[in-house]
Design brief:
heterodimer, A: Sulfite Oxidase, Chain A, domain 2, 8-stranded mixed sheet, 8 helices, 13 strands, B: 215 residues, mainly alpha
């Protein structure tokens, strides 16, 4: 009776969400009144968050599981730049400026360049993919993300044979992120090239058919459904193709607890808690965690011959 | 003023505010997207807060010159146990769903759970022997000795918190500092008393005492 039950109807039909959004608009109204003058001077600096994304197609990379609510996904976030409590990002990221935005794709490639957000959104048809998302803290959600495979973007810059890894970097601005704590910033992450080129590796610009809200990593982030959530880096400003394994923030902070690969693996416990089960938000009892978060058929071959207990 | 009966009622009711607030949020379905985690953290937070408060009573009596604060110490200590019990019940019921095997595995294998479980176990005999009858039965000195377990419960509680956070250690560090200061204060008093003094002597008997003279 304490547990909130997610609604059975789809997110797009849910009234509370629009009420919720209105509430936020209302709440934002007060500070906005003070910021009004500056906003009028640069209307383009307004965040896209919440605007509907056009022509979103269904994708075959979709699980048929009950989705979590927009409310769950947008109020329960790990985004340490905006505070280390999971309720804080929704609050402290509210005025995060995500436009204009550019992503620099550089390093070992023939055509390094910067992409504006508009270019990224127009690069390929947007797909809706319903993925399972498993946090290293042993909770999970099911989210309809919007984006396309990262490989689409990477192919545009023509990676050279020296590109063995991909390094990502999150935007960092102490002024906009005064509550950042717990890690070294900017946040960085990395993937092996074959992982990055895997079709499941999603360059994500939206969720629930709309542009990402700032607390979920607006305007563009990665989603790697077979890895623990922290690998799915948010608010990306730089993507570098590199020849050796790049640093990854949590791995740098605490190597024995957070490996470079960080694939979801129920057989390798976090040193301080079990990874054998997880709590799907909205469910009371825990459920068993699946190898590669249930994406083994697609991604297991990437790691064949590797000792996953060592390469955790 | 602190001697008046209503002050005790006030402290009693004030200490219930956190649990009423939790119930209110539950009633309004406002326990975040992960209610079980929220309840676990909330009850844990209040356990360590009440533990720190309990440990603060004796130093505050001396420093503020308010010896009557002693009237609230047992109650505050029992509230630490109350919230600690809720915290523990949340763990075994909502989190583990009475899966005893899984629970014991956690206690043995996860250091932060071992520390938390220790902190809770140490509070148990203190809660049981918190009555005037038990003080009489045990005798002031022995009772006092037993109740020093609260120091170790406080330390274990802080360790539990410290080992549980992923990287942001600010809160456990703060509670650690508080418990540290309160224990160092006692150690200092103890060290000073141990210094052989030629003239000054303590009264040989403990009067109504165990409660009052406890450093």
């Amino acid at each position: 009776m304490l547990i909130k039950k997610p609604a059975d109807i789809r997110y797009s039909e849910i009234t509370p969400k629009s009420i919720y959004m209105n509430r936020r608009n209302f709440m934002a109204g007060v500070p906005a009144a003070f910021l009004g003058a500056r906003e009028l001077l640069s209307p383009s600096a307004r965040a896209l968050a919440g605007t509907k994304l056009p022509n979103v197609q269904k994708s075959k990379y979709t699980v048929d599981e009950k989705q979590n609510s927009y409310q769950d996904v947008s109020t329960y976030n790990n985004y340490y730049e905006f505070g280390t409590d999971k309720s804080e990002p929704a609050q402290y990221a509210k005025n995060f400026k995500t436009a204009p935005w550019t992503v620099s794709v550089e390093g070992a490639c023939n055509k390094p360049r910067k992409f504006t957000m508009e270019e990224i959104l127009a690069l390929a048809p947007l797909e809706e993919r319903v993925y399972r998302h498993r946090c290293v803290e042993a909770w999970s959600i099911v989210v309809p993300w919007v984006g396309y495979s990262l490989s689409t973007l990477l192919n545009k810059v023509e990676p050279t044979s020296k590109a063995s890894y991909v390094a990502f970097e999150t935007y960092y601005d102490r002024k906009q992120m005064p509550h950042a704590a717990g890690l070294q910033f900017p946040y960085v992450e990395g993937l092996r090239m074959d992982e990055a080129m895997h079709p499941l590796a999603l360059l994500c610009m939206g969720m629930f058919g709309e542009a990402l809200p700032p607390q979920d990593g607006a305007p563009v982030r990665m989603i790697l459904p077979w890895k623990y959530g922290f690998k799915s880096i948010k608010s990306i400003v730089k993507i570098r193709l590199v020849s050796s394994q790049p640093p990854a923030s949590w791995n740098v902070t605490n190597p024995p607890e957070y490996g470079f690969y960080s694939n979801v693996n129920p057989h390798v416990d976090h040193p301080r808690w079990s990874q054998a089960s997880e709590r799907r938000l909205g469910e009371f009892r825990k459920r068993a965690t699946l190898m590669f978060n249930g994406y083994g058929d697609q991604v297991a071959s990437l790691y064949s011959g590797m000792d996953l207990k060592k390469n955790y | 003023m602190l001697k008046q009966r209503w002050t005790k009622v006030l402290v009693f009711v004030a200490s219930l505010v956190p649990i009423f607030w939790l119930c209110w949020r539950a009633w309004n379905q406002n326990l975040t997207a992960n209610p079980i985690e929220f309840i676990t953290r909330y009850t844990g937070d209040w356990t360590i807060r009440f533990l720190v408060l309990t440990l603060a009573v004796t130093p505050l009596r001396k420093l503020l010159g308010l010896p009557d604060l002693i009237r609230f110490r047992r109650m505050i200590g029992l509230y630490a146990f109350f919230y600690g019990t809720l915290h523990f019940i949340t763990f075994i019921w909502l989190d583990k769903f009475f899966d005893v095997a899984d629970m014991l595995k956690d206690v043995a294998k996860r250091p932060f759970i071992t520390a938390g479980f220790t902190a809770f176990l140490l509070m148990l005999p203190l809660a049981v022997t918190s009555t005037a009858g038990w003080i009489r039965r045990m005798g002031g000195k022995r009772w006092q000795l037993l109740h020093r377990l609260v120091y170790f419960s406080g330390i274990a509680g802080v360790v539990h918190y410290y080992w549980l956070v992923k990287s942001d250690i600010r809160l456990p560090a703060m509670y650690g500092a508080l418990v540290g200061v309160l224990l160092v204060y006692r150690a200092a008093i103890w060290a000073m008393k141990r210094k052989p003094r030629v003239v000054a002597q303590r009264p040989a008997t403990i009067s109504t005492g165990a409660l009052r003279d406890n450093p």
